[in-house]
Design brief:
May be involved in cell proliferation and cell motility. The chain crosses the membrane at residues 126-152. It is a multi-pass membrane protein. It is found in: Membrane. The chain has 160 residues and is mostly helical. The protein has one domain (11-123): Orthogonal Bundle (Cd81 Antigen, Extracellular Domain, Chain: A). 69% of the residues lie in helices and 0% in strands. Helix 1 (2-21) runs antiparallel to helix 7. The longest helix has 43 residues, at 112-154. The protein starts with a helix and ends in a 6-residue tail after the last helix.
């Protein structure tokens, strides 16, 4: 049991170190995937489009760097900026969303990339605290399992 807990502890420790070391690659990959999701955005409600809409609604942002990122997409040429970027959903018409100058007044102008990254970084202390707490419980479990094993082997000869 102690060996199993030690193995799990090491796996979690390695995952935490790898996540910390490669955090810049994670940011780069997230930005490129968000750009790709914008490029492939469509109305058929696939998972990527739903994820983009959810991020934009939840964080009140639009595009990757700003709302003008949508101008380089195929979706913009057909329907303009998506409804999920609107500050007030009932106030956005398709004509407004096709005109970048009018859209600037009706959509969120901040990009989603920096908001997602700042939200993640602000929550990292909570994640680190929870991880530290779990690691402490695992270490206590490892120590107690070793003590129990030692107690059993020491008392083995007395029972006979």
């Amino acid at each position: 049991y102690a060996m199993l807990l030690s193995l799990i502890f090491l796996i979690v420790l390695v995952a935490a170190v790898v996540g910390f070391v490669f955090r810049h690659e994670i940011k780069t990959n997230f930005e490129s995937n968000l750009n790709l999701a914008l490029k492939d955005y469509n109305v058929t409600a696939d998972r990527h489009s739903e994820a983009v809409d959810t991020i934009q609604r939840t964080l009140q942002c639009c595009g990757v760097q700003n709302y003008s990122d949508w101008e380089r997409t195929e979706y913009f040429s057909q329907k303009g900026i998506p409804q999920s970027c609107c500050k007030r959903p009932n106030d956005c018409s398709e004509e407004d969303l096709k005109d970048p100058n009018k859209a600037k007044l009706k959509v969120f102008v901040d990009g989603c990339f920096f908001l997602v990254m700042s939200t993640m970084e602000s929550k990292m202390s909570i994640v680190a605290g929870i991880s530290f707490g779990i690691a402490c419980f695992q270490l206590i479990g490892i120590i107690l399992a070793c003590c129990l094993s030692r107690y059993i082997t020491n008392n083995q000869y007395e029972m006979v």
